[in-house]
Write a structure and sequence with these properties.
homodimer, mainly alpha, Arc Repressor Mutant, subunit A, two-stranded antiparallel sheet, 7 helices, DNA-binding
Chain lengths: 174, 174
DNA sequence: TATTGTTATACTCTATAACTATA
DNA sequence: TATAGTTATAGAGTATAACAATA
């Protein structure tokens, strides 16, 4: 297959250089903050920006240390707090489609953190059960949440944190 | 390649059925809400749950109608509000790595929504400029934000919305 | 016929290393 | 030697359709 250039040449040729010398690349003057324009009123934008912070915190405090992805962490904590649950309920709680949940459970089962038990009352259904290893890993990872959240203490007061979570729950609508 | 079963058989055989009849599958009793346990204090969990709502709203109001992805929308609105910007600044503002930004700009440039202009003062650098088509699409998509946000009116008061955005900005830390 | 869960698959999103060109 | 941007590539995340087993 012939390779085609994906990008047209820039429209300003290099010859169009300004004569005047300019600030060096190691600049001391900070960039002015960008105007958000319409974005400043778009809740989803701010949610996404906040997620950059929370995802980064998660990776450092829990993802890396315990080898867990965000959804895996949530799923395990739900099992710890509620006891065995069906894939269906887990999928609803975590907004996961069936196929993706299947693969997720496969990974956690391969690590011996949980197992699938067939429902005694409905042969189509399963109960997802934490193994002993799953329980202890989840407990440890759960305790790592506290220091993670404490990282926000210099950005949010305790009252602000509570208020923020309450407002996010209203947006989530459940 | 021989196909190997990815999943071990369930450990409870079908014979282990309870004798007592049980609620039919078309159940009228709603599932009890799950306990969040540790998750109730994990800000990132609530941010992710709220994002399910905002992403869904975005898809219906802007993503589908205008053929824009979330980051594309944000990027275009930043250009509309600030005029030409370098890829570097766009990447910083939107938390995009260089390679991903390059592909993103390729797509938008292929749609003739923006173009790359070489900086007159630094041959390494570029200015990303909205085309006329890009400007008008962005303007239209920008106006669609208002009705989208109004969908939240039954979940958040005006004051709550403002408070929420303010708190999310603190979390984002910029 | 409807529901639970699975398989196969593809597309989007994000991350990393190596490279080009300019400075 | 450092910076801006690109290329190539792989991995994670998410979506859809078709299927099996059970109800």
């Amino acid at each position: 297959m012939p390779t085609m250039p994906r990008r047209a040449p820039l429209d300003q040729p290099p010859e169009a250089r300004a004569a005047m010398p300019v600030a060096p690349s190691t600049r001391r003057t900070a960039d002015q903050p960008l105007s958000l324009g319409v974005l400043s009123d778009v809740l989803g934008y701010h949610v996404a920006q906040a997620a950059v912070t929370t995802v980064d915190m998660f990776e450092r405090h829990i993802g890396q240390p315990y080898g867990l992805r965000k959804v895996e962490y949530s799923l395990l904590l739900l099992l710890l707090a509620n006891g065995p649950l069906t894939p269906k309920r887990l999928g609803q709680a975590l907004a996961l489609s069936g196929p993706n949940l299947t693969l997720l459970l496969d990974r956690l089962q391969d690590r011996d953190l949980l197992r699938r038990e067939r429902s005694a009352t409905d042969g189509r259904s399963q109960n997802i059960v934490l193994t002993e290893a799953g329980r202890s890993l989840t407990q440890a990872a759960g305790e790592a949440a506290a220091p993670m959240e404490r990282e926000l203490d210099d950005r949010l007061s305790r009252a602000e944190r509570l208020m923020l979570i309450e407002l996010l729950r209203k947006v989530a609508g459940r």
